[in-house]
């Protein structure tokens, strides 16, 4: 928390850079940030209230701010594993009262005067990233590198250049209010909303906002080839879908690595996947040793889908606790050392800053290609992933374990954190949600 407080002071000293931004950012809560709807209508939303404290609050419905904005009436939202980083206060520049949630679908409720392709009543899903559609990266569909939707000077100084804004994920990435709410404002709506066909219900379309395209991006960017052996660290929603897309890309073997109920869940849901539950390995046996025994010389390709927040050993636990590093390098080191010479390691999990004890020697001497996949450029993959979902080639229902109310979404954060009740991915409904679509292989509503 001290680091987060310091980040706001640094931003103040550097000066918030709004000169080149094309959307009004920094509205993390419409009631707090003077962007309330003129009707006075209220809404429920999930807000960050402090470290380990998220709550449903009553706040104002957002208003149209820029002419390219749309207001969405939310009919489905969810919790991402990366949201737990916000819960823990790991993400810089988050403010008390910020509305969270970067994945949502819904119905167009209001349309700004410059919006060309969207009309009131259309069913849409968002891109978790806010793209201007016009900068040099957006025109290449590298939308998460957008240069005009994030005004954080700290981001620019810490990383070397800014990346795009993200809904509901702190002022480090624009400070846009998120979609774990009954309404949400979407800037540059023509670029950041995908119209859902009638054949794709909310229960499937919602996951086009992030998890489907992020998983597909990990496989495409790391480059999984026909016949490859692939190892995946982390069997949360991203890791599970990475495994599915890796098999679709022609992988001959996929090995998933985790240490909890998700190992059995993966075996049940993904035919052919091999599992390493590292908590069940003999004492002194490493994941790397296990992989080299199964695949002599190492796998062709490794994908890290777990993240840098969770230390395995005592040294990194201490260093993380005292702020001596931001991320642990343990899983990256395992992935590098488990990959064959001149193989590839892709990072799709969230890493936010500096790490210690990184095995750069193995990386260099063995010719490993380390690929920071970055946040997924959602719009680049929307056409092909939508086609897969619409045709039934890929069904995101495989990862959905709970259907809950928006009122219970704070509880889902803590269940995700503690890995309780077999929770992998939720569908959270609001008062505007449709009844569960017929023929959907997903759970019924559960009160938490």
Q: What separation lies between the terminal Cα atoms?
A: 29 Å
- Order of strands, main sheet, comes to 12-11-10-13-14-15
Shape: globular
What class, by secondary structure content? alpha/beta
What's the mean pLDDT score? 94
The rounded Rg comes to 21 Å
Please give the oligomerization state of what you see.
single chain
* Annotation, overall tally of beta strands: 17
Proportion of helical residues:
25-40%
How would you describe this structure in keywords?
27% helix; 14 helices; 5-stranded antiparallel beta sheet; 17 strands; 448 residues; alpha/beta
What can you tell me about this protein's structure?
The mean pLDDT is 94. The protein starts with a helix and ends in a 19-residue tail after the last strand. The radius of gyration is 21 Å and the shape is globular. Strand 10, helix 7 and strand 11 form a beta-alpha-beta unit. Helix 9 runs parallel beside helix 11. Helix content is 27%, strand content 20%. A six-stranded parallel β-sheet has the order 12-11-10-13-14-15, with helices on both faces. 52% of the residues are buried. With 448 residues, it is an alpha/beta fold. The protein contains 14 helices and 17 strands.
């Amino acid at each position: 928390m001290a680091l987060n407080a310091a980040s706001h002071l640094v931003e103040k000293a550097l000066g918030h850079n709004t000169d080149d931004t094309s959307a009004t950012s920094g509205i993390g809560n419409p009631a707090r940030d003077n962007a309330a709807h003129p009707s006075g209508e209220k809404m429920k939303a999930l807000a960050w209230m402090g470290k380990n404290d998220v709550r449903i609050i009553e706040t104002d419905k957002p208003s149209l701010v820029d002419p390219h904005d749309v207001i969405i009436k939310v009919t489905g939202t969810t919790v991402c594993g990366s949201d737990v980083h916000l819960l823990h206060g790991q993400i810089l520049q988050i403010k008390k009262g910020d509305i969270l949630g970067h994945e949502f679908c819904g119905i167009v409720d209001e349309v700004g005067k410059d919006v060309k392709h969207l009309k009131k009543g259309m069913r849409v899903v968002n891109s978790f990233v806010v793209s201007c559609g016009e900068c040099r990266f957006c025109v290449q569909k590298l939308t998460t590198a957008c240069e005009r939707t994030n005004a954080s000077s700290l981001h620019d100084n810490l990383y070397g250049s800014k990346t795009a804004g993200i809904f509901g994920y702190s002022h480090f990435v624009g400070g846009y209010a998120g979609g774990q709410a009954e309404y949400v404002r979407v800037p540059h709506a023509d670029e950041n909303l995908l119209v859902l066909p009638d054949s794709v219900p909310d229960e499937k379309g919602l996951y086009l906002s992030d998890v489907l395209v992020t998983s597909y991006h990990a496989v495409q960017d790391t480059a999984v080839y026909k016949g490859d052996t692939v190892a995946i660290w982390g069997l949360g929603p991203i890791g599970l879908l990475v495994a599915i897309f890796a098999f679709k890309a022609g992988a001959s073997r996929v090995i998933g690595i985790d240490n909890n109920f998700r190992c059995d869940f993966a075996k049940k849901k993904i035919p052919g996947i091999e599992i390493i539950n590292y908590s069940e390995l003999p004492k002194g046996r490493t994941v790397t040793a296990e992989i080299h025994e199964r695949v002599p010389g190492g796998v062709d390709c490794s994908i890290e889908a777990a993240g840098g927040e969770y230390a395995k050993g005592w040294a990194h636990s201490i260093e993380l606790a005292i702020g001596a590093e931001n991320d642990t390098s343990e899983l990256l080191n395992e992935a590098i050392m488990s990959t064959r010479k001149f193989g590839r390691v892709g990072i799709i999990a969230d890493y936010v800053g500096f790490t210690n004890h990184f095995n750069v020697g193995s990386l260099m001497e063995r010719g490993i290609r380390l690929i920071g996949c970055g946040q997924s450029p959602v719009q680049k993959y929307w056409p092909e992933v939508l086609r897969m979902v619409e045709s039934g080639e890929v069904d995101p229902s495989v990862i959905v374990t709970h259907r809950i109310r928006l009122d219970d979404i704070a509880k889902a954060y803590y269940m995700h954190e503690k890995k309780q009740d077999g929770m992998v991915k939720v569908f959270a409904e609001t008062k505007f949600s449709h009844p569960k679509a017929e023929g959907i292989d997903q759970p019924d509503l559960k009160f938490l």
